[in-house]
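At this stage, I wrote out one protein, both as residues and as discrete backbone shape codes, and that material follows here.
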Amino acid sequence: MTCKLAAMLLTSLSLAAGAVGHAGAADFAEVPVVKPTYDIGACGDPSVLGFITRRFDYKAANYLHANIAISEIRDMGLTRYEPRDYTHLVEREYCYGTAVTTDGLRRSMWYVIERPWGFAGVGSNVEFCIGGLDPWYVYGAHCASLR
């Protein structure tokens, strides 16, 4: 019985492969390239990105002792979402992006948005890490705890 099933499967696959013709290069040129879009949630929120930029300015001046700032944050996305439920009292959105700094380098950036947070559960908290700019590994090697 198994041999008959395997033979039927192989026959149907070979017929299906034969039915599909070979496409020329011109056939692929006509197909438009569409990038998939995903809901990035709060990862692209201007208030969150503004907080990260302001906070990085402070950290660069006071902890890194470097004359560097974030000039642009691009390519944001959501890596993981942990909703609030009876076992997890804080909702978390884990995000990534690319930070373009004033020295002209593009660095990977990882951040988490937590809410509700603060006094009496009002407000939110944002923690972030920029690759190569965490000399004390506060967020682990290569920002591992925020990935």
Residues 19-31 have pLDDT under 50 and may be disordered. The helical segments are 2-19, 25-29, 46-64. DSSP finds three helices and four strands in the chain.
